[in-house]
Amino acid sequence: xxxEVDENNRFKHLFLALAASISPFYFSLRPVIVVDxxxxxxxxxxxxxxxxxxxxxxxxxxxxxxxxxxxxxxxWKWFLSNNKIKGYGQAVVELFRQAAYxxxxxxxxxxxxxxxxxxxxxxxxxxxVGLRTEALNARLLWARRLSICSMLEAIRMVLEQWFNDRxxxxxxxxxxxxxxxxxxxxAEISKSRRYTAKRTSERKYRVRAGDRRFMVDLQAxxxxxxxxxLDGMSCSHxxxxxxxxxxxxxxxxxxxxxxxxxxQTYSGSVNHLPPLEHWEIPFEIAxxxxxxxxxxxxxxxxxxxxxPSAGERPTQRTTTSGCIx
Length: 325
Description:
By secondary structure, the chain is α+β, with helices and mostly antiparallel strands. Helices cover 37% and strands 17% of the residues. The protein contains twelve helices and ten strands.
């Protein structure tokens, strides 16, 4: 957790990430982060920032939260710098930032096109992840009406419920893969039955799919259609080769699609806060003074959603977001 105040000790920014959320990211989660923001609904103006990813069962997994006074470059930089996101290099990160901050389609398209040319793998993952955070924002709508302290406790309660429910579901399953991964692999296996595979060397196969030919390298997990590199899961062409090699298909998926990884993801504890009288607050924190931000919401009931700008498509999201590996 990190807190920033201005020169008059008034609240400015806050960042929060629970250990139970951060630890799994390095071992058992999809290597893609999505960032988003949404307006607070309480008496004070403010923005709630969220960083999420996906687990191996295609469920939204919250990583970190932030609060800022308004949506501007300073608040976004504060939130992103606290996330300490690393990936494909500074050039790709800069293009991602340009896309995330774009308010018109043309600027977003230029940044993404440049990324596609500079680093196709990064671009491909961003396009294929298909992740939206509206579900999380909707789940926290009631919490966004509370004071900041109460909102953070409400978020903790939501995460506690998600961890408990998802862990119980994962532990009940006896499959090697997560339910979503099992369903996808089953569909690819069905498609692969229409193909033929012929070994060309020790670990390489030529797969015939109708009039098309694909090379599959099982040793390098390199498939000519590039689906494994993008999705971390074997495509139907690869499965035809895997079947010909008489090997388990489950060996050719990324670890985060394994049920064991899903169990590991939700094994962390989201602990209850003890009663206030049991808190042990260090002196240097207890003596800190944090005054409320001067920005106040205008009288009247706030809108439930903002009005899209003229440059937004009808199906386009109504909050700024972006992805980065």
